[in-house]
Amino acid sequence: MANRVPSGPEGVPFLGSSLQYADDPLGFMERVAREYGDVARIDVYGQEVYQVTDPEAIRRVLVTNAVNYRKPSLGGDEGLGGLLGDGLLTSDGEQWQRQRRAMQPSFYGDKLNEYAKIIVRDTEEVADSWRDGEHVDIHREMSELTLRIVVESLLGARLDGMERVTREALLDVGERFRPGPQGFVPEEVPTPRNLRYRRSVEKLERILRDIRRQRERRGSEDDLLGTLLRLRDDDALDDEQVRNEMMTMLLAGHDTTALTLTYSWYFLSKHPEKERRFHDELDSALDSSTTVADLAELDYLEAVVMESMRLYPPAYVVYRQAEESDTLAGFHVPAETVVATPQWVVHHDDRFFDDPWEFRPERWTNEFRRELPDFAYFPFGGGSRKCIGDGFAMREAKLVLAMLGRRFEFDLVSDAPLELVPLVTVHPKNPVEMTVRTR
Ligand code: HEM
After folding, report:
1. How confident is the model at residue 161 (pLDDT cuts 50, 70, 90)?
2. Which residues pair with 338 in a beta bridge?
3. Domain count of the fold of the chain
4. 392 lines ligand 1 (CB under 6 A)
5. What percent of the chain has pLDDT over 90?
6. Mean pLDDT value across residues 227-249
7. What is the CATH number for 37?
8. Ligand 1 pocket: which of 256, 312, 392 to mutate (most atoms <8 Å of CB)?
9. Which residues span the domain enclosing 84?
């Protein structure tokens, strides 16, 4: 039984399964798991990858044998590492450990309560700007809001009207990571997409440099940027590394939470009876003496967020690379193998979730949570490289949903199903237009 060799789609010479993958990455990953099982071998863009969808084996990769699995630098300088350098998301080894230790305090304990105040204020401002009956692209609105929140919370700066430009630059940057052969045209080749990418990176760098310089003039403050600048002044970081960490926070710290919010509004709007339950819970909490910050403690609200991240996990796959050979779910994994653990597939597995494609927040009872195997649900990854912003993101998603849900409901303008494209994260392909209705 042990040390079997995994099977997988044959593919074609040179290209392997690249074309099928590029055509529909999410569907491809699902098909591979269905046809070849929990450990399957695929060949995309000249890279052999083992896709692992057994929760116990995922736990081995991310937790129990994590020392054997480093972060791969997929695409080298053309990949995410080229943009984020040695920032927290893409660094590894001792350097990562030092960075994580230094940055951790900015994400836990009292800091989260300070961020809650910023979240409440910024959300209130957005709510005040909406009129009954107005059409909005809810994903754009949620992205600009989460961008504003992360910049204010971690970098201590207001974007002051620059939200739209910043978001558009970030979208152009994300486009470069759209799966497909065109994504691998080296950056210096002046294709329209590469030119847009380069211009957008420069724009973002300018914005971040301005934020840093303003801070240097103002003097030290006790937030993440303050920590980074103190480390730089002690020669533990240089300006380039400060830029990398700021860029990482901009990218990792807004898009994922915005997607969670967008998909939550989408599913609520598609399921009026669940939307009613969501509103009822908010209304009765407000009848009692709940403060705004306590809204984030509501059970159904939390279940809505968890269920959205299950059905449409913003981070849809986590990659690692084996240092030495290993055995996963009885299969031999040679040294240097790239391993993909796709949330997208595991979160839709009917071994763990009844009617896996149904939006059913009610499933998240305490008993269900207790019985769910570890790593059958892992929207924030796991082990020591688990998302540093998990607590921040949950608090933010719940507060924003609660505050906006108190005042508004959102009706989808079109009945067409949402089309998704996996870039660095799973995005809606088109604007998600909704009508804002005052409750
Ligand atoms: C719903 C929202 C979010 C989701 C689904 C999410 C998902 C993830 C996942 C799956 C990882 C692990 C990647 C891996 O192991 O390769 C990760 C790491 C990370 N996330 Fe998040 N994230 C979210 C929100 C945030 C926020 C709000 C921030 C910052 C403010 C953030 C910053 C980071 C950073 C810096 C890392 C790298 C951590 C490390 O390697 O030490 N994320 N995130």
Report:
1. confident
2. 49, 321
3. 1
4. yes
5. 75
6. 94
7. 1.10.630.10
8. 256
9. 18-438
